[in-house]
Each structure stands twice: as C-alpha cells, then as structure tokens.
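User: Show me a protein chain along with its predicted structure.
Assistant: Here is one chain, sequence first, then structure tokens.
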Amino acid sequence: MKKLLETGNRYAEQSNWTDFALTKICLCAMGILIGLMISKNKKKPVAIISGITFLGTYVVLMTKVFKVIKEMLKK
C-alpha cells in the first residue's frame, strides 16, 4: 500500500492541470457507466450517498482552492 501511495504522489508531482482534468473526466465517465447499471429501485439510495459524498469532497477541495487564491492575492 505504501508503494501505491508513493507512486500516486510521484505521478501528481509530474502532472499538470490537464492531466488532472483528464483524470476527472475519465472518472466521471466511469461513474456514469456504473450508474447506468444500477437497478431502478436502488437508484435513490445511491443518489443520496453520491450526493453526500460529492458535497463533502467538494467542500474540502474548494477550501484548498480558496486558500491558494488568498495566498496569491497577498503577493
């Protein structure tokens, strides 16, 4: 597991914003494909869990973005 995390960190160091954008598009497409395979009677609970997960991760990511913007404005 430690090697896997180290590999991820090295990949991130060598990547730029376009690499991360492509990764997000890829993961979004995968999520859509997985969502299409969920039966109709199970879609609502999955949608609720996905929505909560999205909001939680979005808040964390945007907090970091605003910190970067704040640092840039100070300079």
